[in-house]
Design goal:
Blueprint: H1 3-6, H2 14-26, H3 34-41, H4 47-65, H5 77-85, H6 87-91, H7 98-104, H8 111-116, H9 124-127
Helix pairs in contact: 2-3, 3-4, 5-7
């Protein structure tokens, strides 16, 4: 089945992609009625759309493994690890790229680190 047969406009939401990934992990390749079960776990998608999505995923993986897709060049593994831990910060208005400044500040606390440490409010005397 080609993309044209299913339709190019078949967009996947983040929730559908996550349900698809979970279903792939749940139902092994040799499971009977695998595609039917996966389609049942992914809301709003047909069995044909599930199969096509899987075929596209396999094509992407083959391209990556063949070296046809350049891998991102992270400056350090520490930066990417700290960025993953700051996911909630960026949602609250933190700036993107925060992990770069964090790895370069040394012992000095970054602004968002200070924001995270808020807890005890000042008294009125301290505020004055």
């Amino acid at each position: 089945m080609t993309v044209d047969e299913v339709g190019c406009s078949s967009l996947w939401t983040r929730e559908q992609d996550k349900a698809f990934e979970n279903a792939l992990a749940t139902y092994p390749e040799d499971a009977p009625d695998r595609w039917e079960k996966i389609a049942a776990d992914v809301p709003g998608k047909t069995q044909e759309e599930i199969k096509l999505h899987y075929e596209l995923l396999v094509e992407d993986l083959n391209q990556i493994e063949a070296g046809c897709v350049p891998l991102p060049n992270y400056s350090s593994s520490e930066g990417s690890v700290s960025h993953a831990g700051d996911e909630g910060t960026s949602k609250k208005g933190g700036h993107l790229g925060h992990h770069n400044s964090e790895s370069a500040h040394g012992n000095k606390a970054s602004r968002s680190d200070q924001e995270r440490r808020k807890g005890i409010a000042w008294t009125e005397d301290e505020h004055r």
